[in-house]
Amino acid sequence: MRIGMDVGSTTLKCVAIDNEGNIVYKAYERHFSKIAEKSAEMLSDIVEKNPQFAKASLTVSGSAGMGFANSLGLEFVQEVYATRISVSRLLPGTDAVIELGGEDAKILFFTNGVEVRMNGSCAGGTGAFIDQMASLLSVDPLEMNELAKSKEKIYSIASRCGVFAKSDIQPLLNQGARKNDIAASIFTAVVNQTVSGLSQGRKIEGNVVYLGGPLYFLSQLREAFDEGLGVKGKCPENGLYFVALGAAFSSDGTEIDIVETTEKIRNAKESGEYLGAKELFTSKEEYEEFSRRHARNSVKENCPISKGEQVCIGIDAGSTTVKAAVINMNGEIVCSRYVPNNGDPVTLIRDFLADFYRDYPDAVVASSAVTGYGEEIIKNAFAVDFGLVETVAHFTAAKKFKPDVDFIIDIGGQDIKCFKIRNNAIDNIFLNEACSSGCGSFLQTFAAAWGYNIADFSKLGLFADRPVDLGSRCTVFMNSSVKQAQKDGASIENISAGLSISVVKNAIYKVIRAANADELGKNIVVQGGTFLNDAVLRAFEQEIGRNVVRPSISGIMGAYGAALYALERMKGKSTLISAQELESFEHKVKAVTCGKCSNNCRLTVNTFSSGRSFIGGNRCSKPLAKKNETATQNMFDYKRELLSEYGNTVGTRELIGLPMGLNMFELLPFWHTFFTQLGFGVAVSAKSSRELYVMGQHTIPSDTICYPAKLLHGHIEDLLARGVENIFYPCMSYNIDENLGDNNYNCPVVAYYPEVIRSNVGELKKINFMSDYVGLHRPKDFCKKIYEILSQYFDGLNPKEVKAAADKAYKEYNGFMKKIHLKGMEYLEAAKKNNLPVIVLCGRPYHLDEEINHGIDKLICECGATVITEDSVSPLVKKFPTTVLNQWTYHSRLYAAAKYVAKQGDDDLNIVQLVSFGCGVDAITTDEMRTILENDGKIYTQIKIDEISNPGAVKIRLRSLFAATGR
Amino acid sequence: MSTADRVEFTKEMKDYTILAPNMLEIHFSLLINVFGQYGYNVELLRNDGRAVVDEGLKYVHNDTCYPALLVIGQLIDALNSGKYNPDKTALLITQSGGGCRASNYIHLLRKALKKAGYPQVPVISLNLSGLEKNSGFKIRLSMALKMLSSVIYGDLIMLLKNQIEPYEVNKGETEKLTQKWIKDISADFEKGKGYSFFEIKRNLPKITKTFAAIPMKKTDKTKVGVVGEIYVKYSPLANNHLEEFLFGQDCEVMVPGLLGFINFKVDNRLEDIKLYGGNPFKKIAMQVAMWYLAKTEESLRSAAGAYGNFTVPAPYAHIKEICTKIIGAGCKMGEGWLLTAEMMELIESGYGNIVCAQPFGCLPNHIVGKGMIRKLKEMYPQSNIVPIDYDPGATKVNQENRIRLMLAVANENKGCAHSCEGCTHCE
Prior knowledge:
Chain A has 967 residues and is of the alpha/beta class. The model of chain A has no long low-confidence stretch (mean pLDDT 86).
């Protein structure tokens, strides 16, 4: 008699097996973190229905079961291992198992020695991720599965972490993409995540078995896996119970008294100490005084309208909620609305306008404005007068409550926006980047998990006696922190308070990264729906040690600001569609693929009544076919053009493949010249694309490395596919010394990625892969060393010709850099003459790659600015003292460019720095860049990029930057 | 150094308390005694817990590596505790140099001190590369030799302790002996003894002899090796008390010593000259240093094998040789190829179950840790390596769960521990 119990992160599974090996009992249930209680219930149920199990062996498995198994001295087996046991026993001949759980993803390989992979601490692509995405579509996972059945196309969605994916999905929703396609795309994203994160160079093939809840319940997810892996995997009958079964099998058979044990589990005090933080309120009185203080910051609402009175309408189509406000000529609120987005902002605004026209027939709309993620589509759908960037909307609103405001923090559903105000202009913007989430929707997800709405959930924490100290990081990590706290006996009140505190800490220390409260400012206005929760507001005041202003209309400040903005710019008559037009309003959506360039963007074309339309999903302005003030001077284009001159050539000697990424990118002129001079043919790997990336993703060993590195695997695959038999991709600790820093290193990834390629791309064993260490920083030695290196692989080279080729190569490279510098100067001058703003778009040489920068250079041009690069101005700067160790060639250029811009004192010359997600070196450079710029009163703007693109967030930054510099 | 306005540690500051982060209990205990003998009042920091992490988060970019965040958090937490007079306190931190971002710890620390309101506190860099100089902090030759000796003694004691403690019959005996040796060696140093090559050579076997005399009961334990980023690998604060956890899981733990790292750092300079060319005098100087290190290492190895039946680590030259078959000797940033080499050495000496501990997003580890695991698995099918990421947000539960999985596989490799009928792995 054996009982196996699998206590997962969200569910509890239990099986009972009799001595003949028959499964006599099985149960599957969500445990809502009441682990001991539910476990005891299940065990009693077993014995009640099958008295013969009063004595049986009992083995626990699962991440959440570890604690109580330990404390009660029960047998425990690690869950992946349990799966292994049951698969070997029940499904012999299995080659690989893919198991997705609530918060984890695992792959087990069985052939040629067992190998087990679990997801790392970045845990996207799991059940929790699917749940989260489903709730974003306002369906449950099963409904999402139904939706996915009638897909038409797949969008690329990042699944590394929920935050990334959300920022991919939200714009799709806002642009009107079909939910069916998004649902299917989410499943495909999970497949990609599992494959790239876990296969780590090993191909998943043969007999594949799918286990775990998500794969068991979601047929479309299985199909996506079948498609992605090119196999036909099977999902066994007891697919949900393999861990529990494995646990049962693993026992040595020692039977214990189950009834007694059940009692022990029931009474198990889930002991343990969790870390406590300061309570939010010590007394009711304190809370009342707090409430009174904040009640003062209010604006008149529900103002009546007299016949013919003019009003202005402001709309904030945010990522999770849609807000609208109507104000009278005094800036007082007539009516407002705050509703969840549900992925369909157009319908929501239509309803709002219809209600407004019905309820206020006397009002005359004088002006209107829209802001937020859905700005473009709403503006087109309803012919709104003005569009404005969120930051300006919030600033306008905040000024109304506190004219001397110097710091605004807005915590919304998906994003945190903070900015400083200096000289009555937006100065420094902080947005939550990919990994520093922790916003409103995060509280909401937890509230929903416990069956509360967010307001009630947050209230629970107000009088918590010992809030859990959860630290601050992304949601996935937070899930396990909460789990641990629960296990340690934290009450739901204390967890609620802890979550509120962590939202605040996340904002202060992760997004703003302030060392102390004074750094934020003296007159702080807080807003956004999340601050409507008193617990969050209180935690914020406690954390910064200062009272702040929370307007009574905190949740609709964006809309209110937009309305005020419309009021300021009122032209007499609004273009907003009238009540009659609204009645016949129509909205159609069509998905098409743009063929105007090689990006092949998947577009969603929205058409509205009276011929207005909106196109989303585009990476550039080509499909829009409208004239705007796009600047044409773009150094990124120029550099790409220069590099494209070094193409494939045929030579008298062997053909050498060069992968275009990391250290090869900028040195292409060098190596290309060097090899062609020696008579070699050169094959340059293909232009990067998503497809190229997917080609190489199965050999990526580290899922948290930067995207440019991941992409390199694709470039190697491309060369291999073309039959290139010699690939040259050297290791380079050092780069060329430009005398801008104390040393001339490459970053560790750029320096040594060839080692990773060599060890992880199995196919390379069949060809000549040259990853030798070379040092271009010492030209004289280089000639000798490279001769020795190449002579290992090729016959008939002589030192003299190598020397001559090297000389030519250095010359070519220097000429290339010189051209860039001169072109940069030319653009700068032209911009000055034509009075155009200039952005120095800084990054690494390989950020030129359009698959890496996602067309941000073009986006800047579309905003009407000239784009130049860091290396076009860095030659103008002499080495200068920095507060960090200035030791990397590429990064020294960044500092130099920042210095140049800082010293010019030109409002129209600004820096935007591109940062790859996961770049550890940039944790240092970004801080230093900011310091250099801010010392001279300049604004620092940073854009994080990864395998996904989120032009929305990029636009906010760029538009705010231009707004702040008076453009 | 072009670094702007740093506060130097001057001669007048000799009476300052110098705070230093703790990494390796045995080695660092010996080292601070050496510092004390030369008039530097160095204190090892042992503050632990969430407050340290929180302080770090306040002052260090959260994408910066975890060791920097912890070390800085620990130092500032100590200054905030009120135990030290900030006008009479200095900080000591190691600076490795090289292309890894870790070379920037010291600069980040200075930035943090300024932000935290302690701009007057001087920070002393302890490095092998001559990166920064302080007029009040000079390392004399005898002091340098004593420091090197501390590393050698420390390595031997750690090696023996790790192999004895899990099996000791009388609980606490190994630890007691360890403390006794720290005291005795420090006393020797004080008398100006114990640090010349020949004295070390004489002393080392004595240490082994006393350790070998500790009664042990050999039980069947899982042998686990620990490698990784140097701070996370050694410091319990950083690795969530990894060794303690492994002991609790009935494991014997092997952690490679510090001498290999020093060897590696010196050797890197030679490799650089070999690969890219360079000053021939520097080359000779480094060759002499390598020769001396090789001799000391040899005495360490022969001492470890002199009594008892202890696993003796392979010589540096050997691990470099086996490792450079799969990764270039020019791969030198952070732990560089040494990390891969240590894994190979552990596998070859019977510690094929390995925890590779690294800060989340550690750049060199993408290459030499995670990047090489597949290759190692190919070469050594029996190897069982689990990479674990450490950062302020990672939870112990998650980390331990992954380590448990590695241990389950380890137990199976040992021969199945569960006698389940029908299981194909119990043959």
